[in-house]
Specification:
With 530 residues, the protein is α+β, with helices and mostly antiparallel strands. It has 2 domains: 214 residues, D-Maltodextrin-Binding Protein, domain 2 (3-Layer(aba) Sandwich); 213 residues, Dipeptide-binding Protein, Domain 3 (Dipeptide-binding Protein, domain 3, Roll), CATH 3.10.105.10. The strands form 5 sheets. It has a 7-stranded mixed β-sheet with strand order 8-9-10-1-11-19-12, sandwiched between helices. A 6-stranded mixed β-sheet has the order 14-18-13-17-15-16. The protein is globular and about 65 Å long. The N terminus is likely disordered. It is found in: Cell envelope.
């Protein structure tokens, strides 16, 4: 079996450990690209994991879109990785079997044959078939679906369902990222019969085959998932269910885990991290980041369509100050492209150092704005650290004459306005992806589903597309580094910082197996020592 795939390196310094979520045999997609990862497993009680109980998880915000092929918010990935499953799975850089128990790739890299396991069932009770695989990939590629990551799949020319258990993918050219792409939640295999009957997958519709199934949802308040009794992996999940609740109040979330109201606090606000670490009733995991923050500029409108204006903004920002104020210093200032320096394909030397106010003013003058200009900066009101980022950026840009008005809006409004190009600047962020291609393609290529403002640079696009088909990992990394330099120097975003993620759990929450790529599929292995 030949499994070709190059995966993103994990960030160093990730704590929390455990074994991969599957013990089934499968070829690794890791070509030796993983950075050194420090794993600090806390001592676990003797004995086997216990089955039963429900885990109460609190997250800041609910997702606006829960269709796995359409989602873009991190909270949607957290939830959907419990409900849905893909052909393969990625864990700490290794590709493992999932719905597909094995796969073979042709010598020329243009054909991949997946053999599905015989005991994978949708929550509807119907067996997962190759026809569902074919339907799912074609649904992602269909422009009517408006899948944000559709361009990543453009090299798949066809999927053939040979029989119920055999799906054959044909590629236009070798693709170094294909297995990693097919391991993501965005590549979930969905139940065709459910989608056809319900007309979609958002809201209360469950078309998945993952370890947990949707039991109920109150939008913006709670989602309950129950154990999928016919899940293919023997013995898991251990829990009877997952109970998600949502609260944008940072104080309330911290208080909930300290009082024992919740078992698992997902990513507490940075100002509470030190206190939560000191609480002897709790355990914490993390330290590695997975969210790359940025100031998005709408290059479809003036003055942001002028590269000199964008460069002036890039030069005016003090990224370390933004990190210190917005995230209490937890994270890494990003003084180059999207990728932090320890990730595969990243620039290791900064493009920007200390702010250069005089050079920034000169660039604005050359662009025809000697006195600066008025600008609006949109930010999601319920994201406190994003609001703080916007406030610091407002102060820093004032130094070069850009007079910023902050627009605090609800997440649904931000989603609508970014997709329609109705903004000047947008304080936001993108999660790191398993492989750089997925993020670069969706967020920075022309017509990418997350390329708000539709920035286009032919040289950048050529590098990213070329890297996708480059199977030599060193040559591929060099192509990404060239692309990152272009992104940093003339792209549509001013990168600011990579956050540092932490999860805080009660002492009796066991089996945490974090992965900074990131993935959340390890929740199936969590159990309660009660």
């Amino acid at each position: 079996m030949l499994a070709v795939g190059v995966v993103a390196a994990l960030a160093a310094g990730c704590s929390g450990g455990g074994e991969p979520p599957s013990t089934n045999n499968g070829d690794s997609g890791n070509d030796g690209l993983m950075a050194s990862v420090r794993l600090e497993d806390e001592a676990q009680p003797a004995g086997s994991p216990k089955s039963g109980g429900r885990l109460r998880i609190m997250i800041r915000l609910d997702a606006n879109e829960l269709d796995p092929h359409k989602m873009s918010e991190t909270s949607a990935f957290v939830i959907n990785e419990q409900i849905y499953e893909s052909l393969v799975q990625s864990y700490r850089g290794e590709i493992k079997p999932a719905i597909a128990e094995s796969w073979e790739q042709s010598a020329d890299g243009l054909t991949i044959t997946f053999t599905l396991r015989d005991n994978a069932y949708f929550h509807s009770g119907r067996k997962v078939t190759a026809a569902d695989v074919k339907y799912s990939i074609e649904r992602i590629k269909d422009p009517a679906t408006r899948a944000p990551r559709a361009r990543s799949y453009e090299g798949i020319t066809s999927v053939e369902a040979v029989d119920e258990r055999t799906a054959v993918f044909t590629l236009a050219k070798p693709n170094a990222a294909i297995l990693t792409l097919l391991s993501t939640a965005a590549s979930s295999v969905v139940d065709k019969s459910v989608v056809d009957a319900e007309g979609g997958l958002n809201g209360d519709v469950d078309g998945g085959s993952g370890p947990f199934k949707l039991a109920s949802r109150v939008t913006g308040q709670a989602i309950k998932l129950d154990k999928h009794d016919r899940y293919w992996e023997s013995g898991v999940p251990y829990l009877d269910g997952l109970d998600f609740s949502f609260n944008p109040d940072d104080n309330a979330r911290a208080a909930a885990v300290r009082s024992g109201t919740v078992d698992f606090l997902w990513r507490p606000a940075p100002e509470f991290i030190d206190a939560l670490k000191r609480d002897e009733a709790l355990k914490w995991y993390g330290g590695s980041g997975s969210l790359s923050l940025h100031l998005r500029l709408n290059t479809s409108k003036a003055p942001y369509d002028d590269v000199k204006v964008r460069q002036a903004i890039f030069l005016a920002l003090d990224r370390q100050e933004i990190l210190n104020v917005a995230n209490s210093g937890f994270g890494t200032a990003l003084n180059a492209g999207y990728l932090p320096p320890d990730r595969y394909g990243a620039l290791t030397e900064p493009v920007y150092g200390q702010p250069d106010i005089e050079k920034a003013k000169t660039l604005l003058t050359e662009a025809g704005y000697p006195d600066g200009f008025e600008a609006k900066l949109m930010v999601i009101a319920t994201s406190a650290f994003q609001v703080r980022s916007a406030e610091v950026e407002q102060q820093q840009l004032a130094k070069i004459g850009i007079r910023v008005t902050i627009e605090s809006v609800e997440s649904t409004i931000a989603d609508t306005r970014t997709k329609s190009g109705d903004f000047d600047m947008y304080q936001s962020g993108f999660g790191l992806t398993y492989d750089p291609d997925e993020r670069f393609t969706a967020s920075f290529l022309a017509n990418g589903g997350l390329n708000y403002g539709n920035w286009s640079d032919p040289e950048y696009e050529n590098l990213v597309v070329q890297a996708r088909s480059e199977l030599d990992k060193d040559k591929r990394a060099a192509l990404y580094q060239q692309a990152e330099k272009i992104l940093a120097e003339r792209g549509p975003v001013a990168m600011t910082f990579l956050n540092a993620d932490y999860d805080v759990v009660q002492k009796d929450v066991m089996g945490y197996r974090g992965d900074a790529t990131p993935t959340y599929r390890f929740y199936r292995n969590i159990w309660l020592d009660r």
